[in-house]
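User: Round two. Same drill as before: sequence, then structure, for each protein.

Assistant: Same drill it is. First protein:
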Amino acid sequence: MRCGLFVFALCLLVSSARAAGPYVPASRDEVLERLPTKLFAKPGELALLRRQLAAEPNDVEMACIVARRYLQLGGESGDPRFYGYAHAALARWWDQAEPPPAVLQLRAKLHEKNHDYQQALADLTRLLKATPEDPQAWIEVANLNRVQGNYAASQAAVDELAKFAEPFAVLMARAPLLVVTGQAEEAGCQLAEALPFAVNNYPNTVPWIHTLEADVATALGQTDRAEELLREGLVADPTSYYLLRSYAELLLDAGRDAEVLKLAADNLNDDGVLLCAAIAARRTGAKPQAAEYRALLEGRFDAIRARGDLPLGRFESRCALELQDDPQRALKLALANWRQQKEVHDTIAVLEAAVAAKDIAAAEPVLAFIAEHRTQHPKFAELRKQLEAM
């Protein structure tokens, strides 16, 4: 999921078979994982911060600095383990009912990363009682409600924000809501008008604006325009895993599998990019590569569960559908995910799995939700026709 203005910003297995226990390398020289080199531009930075925090374990300000850095690294790398490190930095205050506001904000963000949206909203509600004119908190409330499909609550948060915040901040909260409620064209116009202001005043938001503009173009069936915008976003921020994932998914949907593999080659730390690469490899008949990528992806899902978390539902559903040939499981996973979050990709995951599983009834609540909110996407009409044809 995206959070707008406030988010800025392995094993090489020889077989597709999954081991019953943890993978044990054959030698000390075997490469288990390659982390992005950009994460280590300041190799001693985190070690220094950790030492300072260990020396002053009750220093909440230092704990928040460490947690924010780990959150940033998690977003940059696509590696959820960094969120666990951020949690650990805040351990002394984590279970407090009323921790300091900075901890509340970070705790809400970490709950969100774990898809525990209700706890995230509860923390943001506490934060807003203390700081009722916190623009970032209101944007996050709007975003979290939108992700869950609670569009009225999302709009209410936008309205509260509009009472005191600058227009650009309000647009960051409102535009994603417009895109999913039948007003994609209006969202596109507003984003285009805001882009020069963002370039001059909030350059870190430019990749996000390009991404949302690409969502608008996709919703309106303008695939070429969507690709152009994603390319522009990647020029502005070539390290954005969200942009890379969005571009990989666009190429995959267009059947440009060889381009997916080329794009993904150096970006497999992100589960979404890895999933696209595994599907592309299978489609092109590259069986060893497809088996390697599938095993790596399944291993990551297992590791996430071992930490007590859940893999992103739409990723796991698409893996079951396109890599494991199990449409019934894919539909079960997609529906469980859709009950929790209802972004466009989550909705598509249910419909695609329902088509494959030939289960029209399972798709009916999803189709009703789309119709009620007039959400736009070319795939909706295509998948609806396939379901009706059954």
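Second protein:
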Amino acid sequence: MVNKENVVKNKIGKIVGIHGAVVDVHFPGILPDIHNAMLVKGTRDRLILEVFEHLPSHTVRSLAMGSSSGLKVGIEVEDTGDVLHVPVGPELLGRIVNVFGDPVDNCGPVLTKEHYPIYRPSPNFLEVITSDTIIETGIKALDFLTPFIKGGKIGFFGGAGVGKTQLVTEIIHNTTMKHGNNSVFAGVGERTREGNELYLSLKETGVLPNVAIVLGQMNESPAMRFRTPLTGITIAEYLRDWKKNDILLFIDNIFRFIQAGMEVSIVLGRIPSETGYQSTLASEIGEVEERIVSTSTGSITSVQAIYVPADDFSDPAIQAIFSHLDSIVVLSRKITQQKIYPAVDPLESSSTVDASVLGEKHHKAQKDAMKLLERYRSLQNIIAILGEDELSEREKVTVQRSKKLLKFFSQPFFTAEKFTNVKGQYVPVEETVEGVARILNGDYDDYTDEPFYMAGNIETVEAKWKQMKG
């Protein structure tokens, strides 16, 4: 017969060392497994320690998922016997929770029927289904240049202030309003202001009841920020399997996840790689990305905002993320300075979606547009030195059409209405392709490029032109 008292004693350890967020715990009995959650006893606020390493002398090294101030050597710690579990279910829609699934929106407790572990294996190869269906966002630049494929991973790359979070918010709005998709937003390293603005924006536009928000904020411990994506994916996986539908998972910002991993690595005393990042960088990103897949029950399509430090795309962290993505959307500071939003750089952005998925008309228009814009870029130096007047008539047409095309890719956002006083526009992909094809055909060569700026489909451009002509 098992002695229950001995089992409980085996699960109790004592703190033997505190080094900031790193807490060493000695267990005289059975050592907790790696990633196990341990509960510090006798504290006013619940403090969870996560096991990261096994040390000699029956000791584990753990990271405090919260403030470790006030901890003392000798305090008892209880091994929960399992990894961290978080509440999952439709009850999380419309709510903001932290990495533990505890509500932080002052709207009462989150009561769900089930709790899932945040560490779950990714589906095996046979269970994963590749899709050839495109998710329409209603944003011209994205739907035309870098279409989103169901179950795919899309990265928004850009430095500070180029509109990554605004674009993410608009996609949440459009996909919810048009297709009724449920979304999960994982804010990794969010500023409190950003989280608050997102919450208010989703509330004002009426899409909050379809979105579950998980926040691991900048002021929280690196361990909490490091685990925020796993909590978000766990909630998304449940919604996918429960609704048997397509779920959108937004991670803003995946670079902050890498930074949190670097902080964790430093406080644990691990030796960094030559580039300064943690040596486990690739495996940590893989742990997150490989769970974002389509299965027979539904798909998780991930949209990830990625901060590019000092606008340097050769940064090792940025290169490590590239390999996991299906579509790459580069937001350019040069285009932002021209007041074109979204500031998508057509020549730097790319997608793995091929002609068989896009359709012949879309593929041809995309190819012709890229060819035109490539030629326009090669003429930039000549224009800067000699001016447009020195160009041949043919090259002048190329420049004029390119300017119209770039401005046509700008668009008023629903989530920016209160700032711009311009009504948001949703443009179906067929209308975007039609508009681009007609610009390339020269149907609007007698127009100036002004009516193309911040317009919706090509009909709104024509209406603006008539209004300008009076």
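The longest helix spans residues 360-386.

User: Perfect.
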